[in-house]
Request: fold
Amino acid sequence: MTARTPRTRLLAACAVLASATLALTACGSSGSSSGSGSTGASAGATVKAVTADPALAALVPADIKSGGKLVVGSDASYAPNEFQDDKGTIVGMDVDLANAIAAKLGLKAEVQNAGFTAIIPGIGANKYQLGMSSFTDTKEREQTVDMVTYFTAGTSSAVKKGNPDKISADDLCGKKIAVQTGTTQADAIVDVINPACVKAGKPTVPNDGDKFDLQTDVTNAVVSGRDQVMMADSPVIDYALKQTGGQLEKLGATTDSAPYGIALAKGSALTPAVQQAVQALMDDGTYKEILQKWGVEAGAIDKAQLNGATS
Reply:
């Protein structure tokens, strides 16, 4: 599975109402754990310097320690979690956290831009030591990689400001929906929304959704009017609302929160070091500073778990 948010949760949460109307809410996090906070991102904000912890650095495998770096795969099209700034530098919440984890372990992080669906295979092929790209920790993923939890998010939807097409979150049948390739949102159109539309005797979502390799193109598709709705992880939708200058508005509620996880090779000797480094950053306040910098502190958690998926 390559979705950012958990398909199993989405399938459980989205269903057809008995009255033959389609009940599709934005299936992600809810309430105060909706991913992005209300303060807005401040990418220029500073975060206190992180110094190496000798005890944690001693946990780093010798071959990685000798290389002096952690190679991190990240799909840099998913602002504010990971994206490229106007100079082409990869920035975002996950990038800052990767840098802080590496520093805590006495290393440097080398964040490499990668296609989202190529990151976990790249970990298996030893191309990356970590995958930090808004991966939801799921039991299915845990069969392939270890996951260290560090955040919670869900799924949300957005439309053009004023909702000119009068779209209801409870009925997306026949609507033009933009999603990123390989995400739960893309899977949901094929596996949940369109089958429910057929059952209800309604038109399906055209093309099984308009799929784009980059999340930035998903946003542009709705802003330009090519598509009517966009679906993505909750912090991404919240950030898009801010960054598009009021051209978009949220559609429906954000529901069904689930943890993000840092992906590592299954059984890797590096996993305990990363887990303890994340916990140390949570405990010393650095983690919260990074989330506040990007306006996503509502998704904060206080315990870094290993393979903490619930579904």
Summary: Residues 6-40 have pLDDT under 50 and may be disordered.
